[in-house]
Amino acid sequence: MNDMQFLTWVRGTGLDIALSIFVLGVLWRLFEIYSLGRKPDLTAPRHAAGASGLHTIFRRTLPAEGMLKRAPVSIIGGTAFHIGLAIVVFLFAPHILLIKNLTGLSWPGLPSQFIDLVAVVTMAAMVVVLVDRINKPVKRYLSTFGDWFAWTLTFLPVLTGWMAVQHLLLPYTTMLAIHILTVELLLVFLPFTKLFHAFTAFGSRWYIGKINGHKGVAV
Amino acid sequence: MSASLEKGVRVLKEVIDAPMASYFNSCVHCGLCAEACLFYTETGDPKYTPIHKLEPLRRIYEQEYTLLGRLGKMVGLSKPVTDDELEEWKELVYNSCTLCGRCSAVCPVGNDIAYMVRKFREGMSASGHAPDGIIGAVNRTVTIGSPMGVKLPAVKAQMKHVEEDYGLPIPLDAEGAEYMVMLSSMEIINFPEYLAAIAKIMHQAGKTWTLCSTAFEATNAGMQIGNSDLAKLLVSRIVDGAEKLKVKTVISPECGHAYTALRWEGANLIGRPFTFKVQHIIEVLGEFQEQGLLKTEGFETDKLTFHDPCQLARRGGVIKQQRNLMNMVSKNFVEMPDAGYMNWCCGGGGGASAIEEGEELRLEAFKKKKSQLDTVKPDRLVTACANCRIVLEEGLEHYQMDIPVLGLTELIAEHIPDQTGQKGA
Amino acid sequence: MHGPLIDTLARQGVTRRTFMKYCATLASMMALPPAAGRAMAEAMASAPAATRRPSVIWLPFQECTGCTESITRSHSPTLEGLIFDAISLDYQETLMAAAGHQAEEALHAAMKANEGKYLLIVDGSIPLGLDGAYSCIAGKSNLDTLKEVAKGAAAIVAMGSCAAYGGIPKANPNPTGAVSVSDIIKDKPIINIPGCPPIPVVMTGVLAHFLTFGSLPEMDSKGRPKAFYGETIHDRCYRRPFYDQGKFAKTFDDEGARNGWCLFELGCKGPVTYNACATVKWNGGTSWPVESGHGCLGCSEPDFWDAGGFYKALSMPADPLKMASTAAIAGAAAGVAISFANRGKKSAAKSAHETTTLADLEK
Questions:
Q1: Which residues pair with B307 in a beta bridge?
Q2: What is the rounded distance in angstroms from the CA atom of residue A110 to the CA atom of residue A90?
Q3: Is C343 at the interface with chain B, CB within 8 A?
């Protein structure tokens, strides 16, 4: 298989397989998790402004009071790489085109030099949080294979995408194909690993916001 | 019948729900919850990381309710939870967790860890891995009526004392009263001022109130040990009493967990909505203050600070009232760092203070409170939870800090002008 | 500097100075040191007589003659065309006067006379299906001819994408079983000059190098001269700034197209195509596909015909998704099945619930 066949495979059959497993996995997992249901809360609610599931979905994006000081690396590094990922994934023109092709939705992109810069910052932030995970006793203690695996699955597409654009190590065609392949690996594993928090974090935030909102606690 | 692992797992299968599933799937081991937990921050031992305290529960969830978890268990990738493991986790689930909910407050993905620890305790208690200290408290509450073994005659004796000292009537079993006042056994034994304060406040506000002879104890050790059946039994006593006396509102005493048990778990435990309102005494005072029914005179001039009970503030949403009340009677009220919603736990909530073997750890964790207090250097420390009060007093004594602790309700009552003569006339 | 070539050039109005400049340009294009330009000029100019000119045999297989057209007739007269004066093109079916047996004789005579020294140029792919019966010349299959002629060749030039990679005859489903030269010949130096057709100056550049140094120029992993295939069309494209700014033509006649914006979204394969079009251009430097408003087809890359469609952007799926909707249904079905199993399990646990009494707290 030459590099063009490799690229065509990852753009064609590979993408089909990966997206199918992704869609299958996401639906399966969402049903599996949320169909467990919860008992209705019979206690009398106390209403308070700004206390609801929806509020919490947004509010939890910002660190809780006092936490920035206690865990600056986790919070700044984590926030930086999440925002970076969002920018690189959703605002790079070729990516938008793929999304448009798959969903019909489209929006303006950002200049590629800017995306390039963001990709570098994202990778730097990811390396920092990885080092923090290795160095910090609590994080090292908690970490399982799943954590290292999830980090690798997330890091590789950014790295290979950036290397492809920068023409590093391998010819662009091969690197692009590897980039797409790593994204496909990410898609395949996302529903079944810690990466699924990309979906459930919103559900979790909504639940805790709902539970606290019932008590009139704005969190 | 006795406790068994099988029974514990079965109970957990009952209580595992969608929020928990969502939470477990959202955790990325970022470790922020550790930074919010005083048992970790003061000991530096990573095993006290809140989410780690749920590890056996996570495995049971995965093995029972996820396809991959079931497969993993079948092929031996995921090890079944054992009695030995749960016994090891006893310290993590009870001694080193006060259900204070700081971890839940900081989790970036929104995991309500305290919610899960509360549910995990259902399985822990059903499988026989609850600490003896809390089992004893549950035993006394169920058989005698209160965790400290206080019986009605003791309450009556207190009532009599207060009536004599203050000249105010303490109604018992008064049908149709607006408020039914609950006590915690701490207040009956250690802080009789509370009952006197209530009498003065109610008298000034012109509200009818009563104690209930079949339901005076508000604390719920059943909830602390994490057993809904026993918690229900205890809550039912209060519900029965309140419905028998046809009161409009039941007032939870200055006790955080009693408030949570009654206000936020009660109706769910008995399986139907209450026919009466439940308020914490601080909420009632706040309402009186707002409606002008609470009038005080004079101010404390020494430096006061306020310790927010976790269940009242963070888990209960009552944060502003206590501050308004403090300012009503104090000229020199200063806040500790992290006060209010993010206040640090005293270290003895959630039944932890009943665990003897947990005392060393509790005192270690108290360093957090000590550092908070060291920043402010108050003359006196005010709080609104009898359990916090006891734990604070123990900690302060251990660290040789000479800071008296008092309850907010009694502090307010001290500033109520003596109106017995006028009103009585 | 004198010689038949210089004389011929002079007759056609090309000065010696222009010829020298051409050689220098060719050398620089091939990333050779400046002195190489002069060496090339001398090598070509001093080829005095037919006997001393290196023999070149050009075999056409499954091809469309487009490559020959490109090299010989792109614009005339040209310096590229004239370089053929420096070689002895002993067999080229399209160009040679001889036909039939005479042509075959010429071929065999040249092979015999220049055994081990001649340069073999191949255009077109070689069909392997039906024992090679899809394409025969003089009663011999292309496969046999290639093997026979390649044996005595000093080096082989696979001219055009068909000879280099199989090209259009190899396009899915490849009915003739077409393969490239390098799929068959393993023991000779082979250089690929892909393109459909290839750029003339690439051809002459490679010939000049062979004439000057007696060897093939430096090649990339796909056997192409690095000098011409070292960078992608995209990286050298004059429309690249628009790509970087995120300005794309969305259709062939919109505002973006008129403004000359990037054609990426219209399926341009420039980013994955290694060729010199963007710098050398076509028709004597007149224009090239992207300049004329059409995206690059990627014709110099292997299997360009099957790379997902000419008008589909590179970041779009190469094929329509076939399984995704089935997967969605399967996923939902699996989810619902698990939900029911879980709910059953949960309610079983609930109905097995025995109310805890105090005694139950102890083991």
A1: B383
A2: 10
A3: no
Give yes or no: residues C224 and C240 share one domain: no
Structural domains in chain B? 5-130 (1.10.1060), 146-291 (3.40.50), 304-414 (3.40.50)
Residues C112 and C254 in one domain: no
User: Do A43 and B111 make contact, defined as CB atoms within 8 angstroms?
Assistant: no
CATH for C293: 4.10.480.10
**A-to-C residue pairs, Cβ atoms closer than 8 angstroms:** 141
Q: Are residues C60 and C183 located together in one domain of the fold?
A: yes
Q: Do C358 and B11 touch (CB under 8 A)?
A: no
CB C297 within 8 A of CB C277: no
> In this complex, which chains have at least 3 CB pairs below 8 Å with chain C?
A, B
Say yes or no: B86 contacts chain C, CB-CB below 8 A.
no
Q: What are the sequence ranges of the domains in chain A? A: 1-36+172-213, 68-143
Please give chain B's pLDDT, 425 residues, in tens: 578 999 999 999 999 999 999 999 999 999 999 999 999 999 999 999 999 999 999 999 999 999 999 999 999 998 999 999 999 999 999 999 999 999 999 999 999 999 999 999 999 999 999 999 999 999 999 998 888 888 889 889 989 988 888 888 899 999 999 999 999 888 888 888 899 999 999 999 999 999 999 999 999 999 999 999 999 999 999 999 999 999 999 999 999 999 999 999 999 999 999 999 999 999 999 999 999 999 999 999 999 999 999 999 999 999 999 999 999 999 999 999 999 999 999 999 999 999 999 999 999 999 999 999 999 999 999 999 999 999 999 999 999 999 999 999 999 999 998 765 444 33
pTM: 0.89
Instruction: Compare all CA atoms of chain A with the CA of C342 and give the residue at the minimum distance.
Output: A36
Tell me whether residues A44 and B272 touch, CB distance under 8 A.
Answer: no
Range of the domain at C115: 53-229
A36: chain C residues, CB-CB within 8 Å: 342-343, 346
B52 touches A at CB < 8 Å:
yes
Is C113's Cβ below 8 Å from some Cβ in A?
A: no
The long-range contacts involving C221-224, CB below 8 angstroms and separated by at least 24 positions, are C221/A171, C222/A2, C222/C165, C222/C192, C222/C194, C222/C274, C222/C302, C223/C158, C223/C164, C223/C182, C223/C190, C223/C191, C223/C192, C224/C164, C224/C191, C224/C192, C224/C193, C224/C194, C224/C274, C224/C300
C178-179 and C126-127 strand pairing: antiparallel
Q: Does B69 touch chain A (CB under 8 A)?
A: no
A70: how many CB neighbours lie within 10 A of its CB?
Answer: 16
Cβ–Cβ gap A39/B315 under 8 Å? no
Q: How far is B11 from chain C (nearest CA, A)?
A: 7
Q: Which of A19, A100, A173, A184 is the best residue to mutate to test the C interface, defined by the most C CB atoms within 10 Å of its own CB? A: A173
Q: Check if the interface score ipTM surpasses 0.90.
A: yes
